[in-house]
Amino acid sequence: MIKPIAENINGILLLDKPLDITSNGALQRVKRLFGAKKAGHTGSLDPLATGMLPICFGEATKLCQFLLESDKHYRVTATLGVRTATGDAEGEIIATQPVVGVTRERIEELLQQFTGSIEQVPPMYSAIKFQGKPLYELARQGIEIERKSRVIQIHVLRLEEFDEVTFKIDVHCSKGTYIRTLVDDIGLALGCGAYVSELHRSAVSPYQESTMYTMAELEEIVKQQGKQALRQYLLPLETSVQSFPALHLTTAAVFYLRMGQPVMASHVRTKGLIRLYSDDGQFMGIGEMLDDGRVTPKRLLGYSKKIAKAV
Fold it and tell me: Edge to edge, what strands does the sheet with 272-277 contain?
């Protein structure tokens, strides 16, 4: 049997990751559906988590880091009275405690203490590496390593439902936030323990309330229309960095930037990262404004009209 030829595809798909599959497993299935040569995802979701998993194809993989560093939004269901080793339903139960004196008012008051700038100790069941090995591998061997706390930002932490056994919260948080740890810490503060029983990522900035596609929908499109039809559901590359200011460059400036040289842009009244466009409107990638009024290349894409249009 002749193996299908993989194609150069460029763009971003917002996948609604299904339950009981790893983020990498979902990525590989989508990559095969599209018949793409190169693809990557931006920010892992646990197998028990569902929701938005941006898949970056081709040149879009050069912009993955900006989505990894963006804010995330989650809808979380937590079960009270139980702590698990992983902080979710997959882990071994390590403690149980009667749920006594827990009210909606108490939870709402407590959530305020977890809002804003807080410190969080990453869990052992995480992909953080220690001496080259992911912590979760050590955790499975019964080894626990001391972890330093990190400062994270919880922008919004809102109680949606409470029924004496479970509670549901909406979370808007910064990168690096572990929802399992957040729920475990809340459970400890309530005095009864808690673990994540359901987790859905509803948005990854800047994709707020954007349309996601399930694996079943993508497979049906391929079945009915062929894999080429999937490309109409890809977002342009520049949508991943749309929060950055835009700068249009002259043909001469484009030439020198592509040689790796900073160019003058003293008319720009901004600092930090910016989107770069050629004089004909083609998205080129990301630059950074320097203090002396020059812009330097940060992450440039392949120079092609096809790439600029994402497909």
Answer: 246-248, 272-277, 283-289, 294-300, 263-264
